[in-house]
Predict the structure.
Amino acid sequence: MPLSASAQWQWIDKNGKKVFSDQAPPPDVPEKNILRRAGSPPPPRPTIDTSNAEAPAGEATADGSKPAKAREGAAAPKPTGVDKELEEKTKKAEAEQKAKEAAEAAKVAKAKADNCALARQGKATIDSGIRIAKVNSQGEREIMDDAARAAEQKRVQSVINSDCK
């Protein structure tokens, strides 16, 4: 099994994001932004040299690379610098986060709707004028007087104002 199968490159792209790939970074990435190389350090990046341009297309130059003309004519795929799998994982994580936020918002909206319904029902009961009893801290029943009824109406109305929008 070749060693390059497990090799990893790591560099910082032009947007400042770390990129991990099994392919070398594109030529426009400066050497200082390459954080990790696959295996041993690669040879220096090829530069287009006009002295190699006259060499025949099928021959290699003295350093073993293809002449500039042969490199330009080759239709080799250009590395994008972005790992497709990493992009998919990021999109999936973002979608899950949005779904969680939507579920939480729905939960809060349902709680507000329930509070609103209970508050309106309580207000209707208080406004009806019937006698209302509450249990005090000693566990005894007390009938609400006019002041307690007015305070309860005010409290219920504030709940309606906040939850029934």
Remarks:
- The chain has two domains: 7-82, 102-163.
- The mean pLDDT is 78.
